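On clarity, I found the account of how folds are encoded harder to follow than it need be. Since the whole study asks how a given chain folds, the encoding of that fold should be made plain. For illustration, here is how one protein appears when written out as sequence plus structure tokens:

:::
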Amino acid sequence: MLNCSDFLDKTFKLYKAPFLVLQAGIDKLVDPFLGFDLMKESPSTDKEHIFYETSWHNMWGEDEIFEAIKENIRWILQRC
């Protein structure tokens, strides 16, 4: 897992496809600030980052999951 995380940030400049990042601020498995780095480094012209400051890695157990689901649906429907 750690090796993968170390590798991912080196590939951010290759991400050209549209993407949405939902990031948990108190995530203990994934660096909460990787999403900000991805936004800065990726050349994609269609990218969005939503940061949930008080969420853990598994957002399914968090109150924010309902907002996150709505954001996913909104993002997808805007591209249909």
About this structure: The chain has one domain: 2-77. Residues 2-77 form one domain.
